[in-house]
Amino acid sequence: MKKLNVDIQSVFGFIDRDDLKKQESSLKVHHHNLISGTGAGNDFTGWVRLPSSTTPDLLRKIKEAALELKEKSEIVVVVGIGGSYLGARAVIEALQHQFAGLMPAFKRPGSLVLFAGNNISEDYHADLIDVLQKVDWSLIVISKSGTTTEPAIAFRVLKQHLIRKYSMSEARRRIIAITDKAKGALKNLADKEGYKTFIIPDDVGGRYSVLTPVGLLPVAVAGFDIEVMINGAAEMEATALGSHLPENNPAALYALTRNALYQKGRTVEIMVNYQPNLVFLTEWWKQLYGESEGKQLRGIFPAGVTFTADLHSMGQYIQEGLRIIFESVLSVEQSARKLAVPELDDDSDGLNYIAGKRLSEVNRMAELGTLLAHVDGEVPNIRINIPEINEFYLGGIMYFYEFACALSGYLLEVNPFDQPGVEAYKKNMFALLGKRGFEEDSAKLRKRLEGMV
Ligand code: PA5
Asked: Bridge-partner residues for 306, per DSSP?
């Protein structure tokens, strides 16, 4: 079976082998600390052995719960934000028909999964309710802390709709909560109302939780094989834990290379994909790396583009703008569907020179042409080759990115498992909304806003 691999040929010229070699001894220490749980943030490294320790019993329970929801719901709304949202969306969007929302329900492998609580937009949630009025639906609410404002608001609004549409008791049967085992408002509510509940392990932080029920339940509800996904992740776990050596461990190679580039002033990493169904994998990756590394005035800024669309926008900057960027290209070797360019008798559009070629072949030439152009424009390129997009490789690549992210954070000498900076906006928002306990800040902030808005 083909494996994911990392190709760094196109970074040489910007860094050399010595730049990698000189970090290898610290990589060895960080690898050891990560897998033995002795590094910074070690109470949040439960995800490291999560794939291999996921029990058949847990998978069975998730599948049973998913089946129950699927059977009675055309739509399942997943309420959550950040790490309690992006992983599930990344997997579902990568796997599902790209026009799933327009397909008849019987053509889908599961329920149509929609998302809420990842913003506070009134229009978004009102539009969502318009749709929910017309269909049978259920709700999965996810929050590790159980106190995050955005999903709490969406849950309150949507729960009210669910109760009005069905009844209190039927609404309770249509809600599943995924949260902490003991604490938080959501846990209290779940106990009080008797919702079916899944636990997010204490030692797994939000952005590393896609392989817990946080990601697995929505993916199963959408009709995809979570067992295969876990198997793919477990294979990558064995590789990642097995060796710190970059030649044996693609996550170590990726972590080492991006840090060597960072040392040379490449402070922005652009994750590139050539498939629109991978946009949310990029979003998930941005959150994972941004929240893990961006602290203590350090860290690579994670950005994302989807080519070839963004070659007609961001392409100009990448080719000729500030030389502070490098790209990591997610290169999918085989597409799932087949479609070729047709031949025209009169060749009126001049495309007969590619007639008969599959679109994936044309896309591949765009990818290779761009690689050469960007390297010529002095943009180092890392290629992450993934054989195809399915449950197995998605499980593998998500574990790969998690492991590399933790190693990268350690190489950067930050704690990759905390996010102290996220609190600043929350404090201000609570104060401006008049939450009890924030009265003093409220007056000060209102004063500062005078004349600004
Ligand atoms: O990675 C993280 O820890 C965060 O992005 C959280 O997932 C996000 O803030 C949501 O938190 P919670 O699940 O507690 O609602």
From this structure: 273
Q: How far is the CA of 440 from the centre of ligand 1 (A)?
A: 27
What pLDDT score does 452 carry?
84
Q: What is the pLDDT of residues 306-362, one digit of tens each?
A: 999 999 999 999 999 999 999 999 999 999 999 999 999 999 999 999 999 999 999
Top-confidence residue, 399 or 434: 399
* CATH number for the domain harbouring residue 356: 3.40.50.10490
In percent, the amount of the chain with pLDDT more than 90 equals 95
Q: How far does the centroid of ligand 1 lie from the alpha carbon of residue 146, in Å?
A: 9
**Active-site residue set:** 291, 312, 426
Q: Which residue shows structure tokens 């979003």?
A: 283
**pLDDT of 1 above 90:** no
One domain, residues 251 and 334: yes
Q: Do 283 and 188 belong together in one domain?
A: no
Pocket of ligand 1 (CB under 6 A): 81-84, 143-145, 148, 151, 205-207, 291, 419
For residue 336, the enclosing domain spans: 5-41+229-411
Q: Are residues 172 and 57 in the same domain?
A: yes
Q: Which one of 148, 202, 210 would you pick to mutate in the ligand 1 pocket, going by the greatest count of ligand atoms within 8 A of its CB? A: 148
Q: Which atom of ligand 1 is nearest to the CA of 208?
A: 1
Residue 104 confidence (pLDDT): 92
Q: Which of 43, 45, 84, 426 to mutate to test the pocket of ligand 1 (most atoms within 8 A of CB)?
A: 84
